Amino acid sequence: MAVGIREALHPQIDLATEPRWPRIAGTFGEDADLTSRMAAAYILGFQGAQLDSNSVACMTKHFPGGGPQKEGLDPHFPFQRGQVYPGNNFNYHLKPFEAVFKANTAAIMPYYGVPMDAGHEHVGFSYNKAIITDLLRKKYHYEGVVCTDWGLFGGENIPEVLVKLVKGGKIKESRLDESVKRLLRQKFMLGLFDNPFIDAGKAAQIVGKPEFKQAGEDAQRRAITLLKNDSKTLPLQAGKLKIYVRHIKPEVAALYGTVVTDPATADIAIIRLKTPWIPVDTDIPMAKGFHHGDLDFKGGLKDSILQLLGTVPTIVDINLDRPAVIPEISAKAKGLMADFGASDAAVLDVIFGKFKPGGKLPFELPSSMEAPCWQGAF
């Protein structure tokens, strides 16, 4: 609101049922009921009880659920394998959307995904009549805006195509009027025709306020999840230990103890990890940055981690942008924590008892790579 953003391209309420999918970090996890409650509260916070001049409209995505990608391959790209439902759980992925319909989400974004075994034609969701017209519009009686995902055909940036289709009799002008009506109705409800401008001076005072930053930092700490605490090793005592750190800034760690460079001389080691991933062999630049592939540590990297855990008592913190396969690491670590985006200071505050971890895992952690290979969309 402060900077004039009146529509948010979220929440993302896909269910993280395929642990290899790269976009899990944007979801609320794998549980449909939890996601439903979170999504409804999210929309209430952004939009209020009804859309008005104090609202930020929510475009909820990705209908009818983008999580169950075959082999975890994201459908943004041509190497995708479609969406699969080996447990016949297509309807399970709809539950969060039923919640946001009740919460009056202003808009819906379908995904690129192609349903492969759910009884629908093999056409991407944005162009799938059974999904958009029959399911979304008719069954759920949804009358809000529907927007295709990024990069798909849209009349807003190539209107000449729509004009040609209307003149050629392929699309009725009355059909375009339906979409225009929905868009204009939302803009009127947001008050964009009454007062489309913001107070730039006020915006500068609001954005980045210290209390807002502090709230974000506190949220990082509260979300950290304690997975293992062998012999009640945690919390550690600040200022009394020689600490060996890996993937942590030494100058930050020095605020909590004496940093040493040789793990053999340390009282404790603290290491931060991230869920592994393997770049897809592709010429598509965007695809190279998506975290596809296996979830387990391999080869020299795994050996290095396990060697450290065998040398000195070690606390492991792992950033879970996807579920990681870490049974050997878990077995040897004295303490194991998960974060979902946290600074070194936030992690160390929890390790040294300045802040209690309060997070819970939003998804299961597979015991091996064989598990995701058959799990799919459960």
From TrEMBL:
E.C. number(s) listed in UniProt: 3.2.1.21
High-level lineage: Eukaryota, Fungi, Fungi incertae sedis, Zoopagomycota, Kickxellomycotina
Signal keyword on record: yes
Family to which the UniProt record says this protein belongs: Belongs to the glycosyl hydrolase 3 family.
Alphabetic keyword roster: Glycosidase, Hydrolase, Signal
Entries under InterPro entries matching the protein: Cellulose_Degrad_GH3, GH, Glyco_hydro_3_C_sf, Glyco_hydro_3_N, Glyco_hydro_3_N_sf
Catalytic activity: Hydrolysis of terminal, non-reducing beta-D-glucosyl residues with release of beta-D-glucose
Glycoside hydrolase family 3 N-terminal domain ranges (all copies): 2-152
Record-given protein name: beta-glucosidase
GO MF assignments: beta-glucosidase activity
One family name in Pfam for this protein: Glyco_hydro_3
